[in-house]
Design a protein that fits this description.
Blueprint lengths: L5 E6 L3 H7 L8 E6 L2 H7 L5 E5 L7 H9 L6 E5 L4 H9 L4 E4 L5 H14 L11 H5 L3 E3 L2 E4 L4 E4 L2 E2 L4 H12 L5 E2 H9 L8 H14 L5 E4 L3 E4 L12
Parallel strand pairs: 1-2, 1-3, 3-4, 4-5
Antiparallel strand pairs: 6-7, 7-8, 8-9, 10-12, 11-12
Helix pairs in contact: 7-8, 7-9
């Protein structure tokens, strides 16, 4: 069996729902991790390709959680709740959700919604939007102690693995493929997200910040204000950390 390609974060304290989603009928392409609180969702959403928010989860309202996540990322979100009345669906969509699905014992509609939102959000397989020539050739990209392998989507720094989300990986690959080029914000969004994406450009800044933090230094990515980004110089020992 191949490695699951889509990491799903389920935010719910409903044990029955969690158990159902961890077993068939969901196809193997979905790998589901569950957290019981909204706070955990806000801490961990960046590591996932799809979010399922159960509206009955105690704590912060699911629509408020959705708004906060949407301010930072374009990850697809499905809210599980009543969704019977038009107003419920409208409020969920206005909060930034991609779908509002009635929570029930049957998972058929939920699975269909998951399939649909993934097709729309990731026209190419997860993490494979418009690869550059180096990525297509499977060439390992190297910048000092930083290595990126497009074939197995591994990144190491000083020989230690760096765990990146699919979007973070694609963003870093774009910068490393052509390190001398100053990539405009528009070009990065078109390549890493897609040319028809109309979300906030702040999403790009959030991903740049996350990359700098995971690589341990602000210097790995150079910013040209009002223009875009390019791969920075290899940080010297003791270089400042990302703010």
């Amino acid at each position: 069996m191949g490695k699951p390609s889509t990491r799903v974060l389920l935010v719910s304290n409903d044990a029955r729902l969690s158990t159902a989603l961890h077993h068939p009928p969901l196809p193997a392409k979905y790998f589901v991790i569950s957290v019981p609180t909204s706070a955990q969702a806000l801490e961990n959403f960046g590591d996932f390709d799809l979010l399922l928010l159960d509206s009955s989860t105690p704590g912060m309202d699911s629509r408020e959680v959705c708004k906060r996540i949407r301010d930072q990322a374009s990850v697809p979100i499905i809210i599980l709740g009543p969704c019977v009345n038009e107003i419920d669906r409208v409020l969920a969509l206005n909060a930034g959700a991609d779908y509002c699905v009635v929570k029930s014992d049957s998972l058929h509609e939920l699975q269909a919604s998951m399939d649909a939102v993934m097709r729309r959000s990731y026209p190419c397989p997860v993490g494979q939007n418009s690869p550059g020539a180096a990525a297509q050739a499977g060439e390992v990209l190297v910048a000092g102690p930083l290595r990126l392998n497009p074939r197995n989507r591994d990144v190491t720094l000083h020989g230690r693995p760096v765990r990146l989300t699919p979007k973070e990986f694609d963003l870093l690959a774009m910068l490393m493929e052509d390190p001398e080029t100053l990539h405009t914000r528009k070009a990065i969004i078109a390549r890493v997200w897609n040319e028809h994406w109309f979300g906030s450009t702040r999403t790009l800044d959030v991903h740049i910040g996350a990359l700098r933090q995971k690589l341990g230094s602000y210097d790995w990515i150079e910013t040209k204000r009002g223009i875009g980004f390019r791969l920075g110089t290899v940080p010297s020992p003791g270089a400042r950390d990302s703010p």
